[in-house]
Amino acid sequence: MGVPLTWLVRHQDLRLRVLAGHGDLDREVVWAHSIELTDPAPWLSGGELVLTTGLRLAETPAACAEYVGRLVKAGVAAVGFGVGLSHGQVPPALVEAAGEAGLPLLEVPLPTPFVAVTKAVMERLAEQQYEGVVQASRAQPRMTRAALHGGARAVVRELAASTGTSVVLLDHENKARASHPPGAGVPEAAVLAGLRASERAAAAVSTGQDGAVAVQRVRVGPRAHGRLVLTADRPLTPVDHLLLGHAASLVALEAEKPLRLRDEQNRVNALFLRMLLDGGVAAPAARDHLAEAGFPVREGIRVLALRGGGPHRILEAVGSELAETGLPLFGRGHTGCAAVLLPAGDAVTARSVTDGARARLRSRVWAGLSAVHDPADAPAALTEALNASSVAETRGASGVVPFESLAGRLLAAVPETRRILTTLADTQLAPIAAYDSGHGTDLLVSLRTFLEHNGQWAPASAALGVHRHTLSARMDRVRGLLGADLDSAHVRAELLLALSVWQEPGDTGRTG
Fold it and tell me: Who's near 152: CB < 8 A, 6+ residues apart?
């Protein structure tokens, strides 16, 4: 922000006259500096109006050209040459050099002291700062009203109108969610990559010959909602940055409103689910509450248990997935797992929710799904889901393991019971395996076939391809090795469970 040269020239009290650079009077002066050095460049930072009486300036074309060249290189806005002291008029060689370089050259008459020019610049800069504050104070309420009535799109529109710039609201994938003026383009990927602020930085700015681009993160605490990108064909002012920050806050609050309401509702739902899973809610009350919350309960409920990450993080990811399907989240942590209530029906919802949560978390998650239950049987559904998720983790399953698929294999799949069965197998089956190894027999295979055919001689011998008397002789040998009665249903059941986890020495796969 600076004072336009056109404003200074029109200031009647100063009586400045333009001698060169008539086509560059749109430049802005950021300061007025009186200096008589022939090389003032080391004391300049750019944008100044250099005031001089030419005290040490030679009037030769070479000296004037060298002087102008230094000023142009330093980036000064213009030169004000005071006449009537060191020089009766502005040296013609200086006028010619300034004209050739495109550097505005102003004649300052003797009655106009340099301090008057400096004071005029300072006062105008102060006025502009105050005008900026007034502009911001007027624009901010308009932007706030826009947020209340029109949401993020209205805020983007008001920001662009108040700053005279182009504004685009980007999501996490750099896709435009809102823009103004209509059709305003997203800056090139290279520009955005250069402006990609770090996780801790709130904003970044890039300024070049074609203007400026500013990026402001839209976030509340750790939760980010995208970025606001403001593009101008001029340098940005403090007011631009102030309004950009205000707009980012409004957009963030607008995005947070449904999230805060959803978070609060999720906390209430979690309390209800805890009572439901503990068996503390009667069936009619459970059905009424779930129905009022928009949870379809007519065909019953399922419980989905997910493990492999922090329950809180999993529930956040699952909640976002369910929100996209229009379902409320009833979820809570339980023994290191995330337990989530789902409607009855097929497992499509469970699979999509699990896959979506994995994608959001970018980590492995194992999932188990209960059978369909009445809401009053939620504790039983929770137990089934937890067991199924334990099996999923043991198997390293990438999908959702339904509890129904575990029929006949649950005990061998759950780590706690598998350890007991492994001990049983080592005790009961090792003698038979040792006998087979030493005598080249197939007693262990014959025993498995006999047990899997419920002790029926004809079907078992047919499956083995041997005569029933041969199978009977083999079972007599097994009786002798085990010292057990194979006619007992309890003995046969115990041996069949042991076989479900039995591994031959050196074998890393299951035989069951």
Answer: 169, 177, 178, 251, 254, 255
pLDDT band at 117 (very low <50, low <70, confident <90, very high): very high
> Do residues 279 and 378 make contact, with C-beta atoms less than 8 angstroms apart?
yes
| Single pTM value for the model | 0.43
Copy the structure tokens of residue 13: 């009290």
* Length of the chain measured in residues: 512
Q: In the 8-state DSSP scheme, what is residue 131?
A: H
The set of residues, in sequence order, having a beta carbon less than 8 Å from that of 376 and lying 6+ positions away, is: 282, 283, 286
295-333 burial: b if 16+ Cβ within 10 Å, else e = bebeebbbbbbbbbbebeebbbbbbbbbeeeebbbbbbe
Euclidean distance between CA atoms 339 and 417, whole angstroms: 22
Task: Give helix 92-101 / helix 61-74 axis angle, nearest 10°.
Answer: 40
Sorted by sequence, the CB contacts under 8 Å of residue 313 that are 6+ apart come out as 361
Highest mean pLDDT among 71-85, 376-390, 428-442, 452-466: 71-85
Task: Based on DSSP, count helices (H) and strands (E) in the chain, helices before strands.
Answer: 17, 17
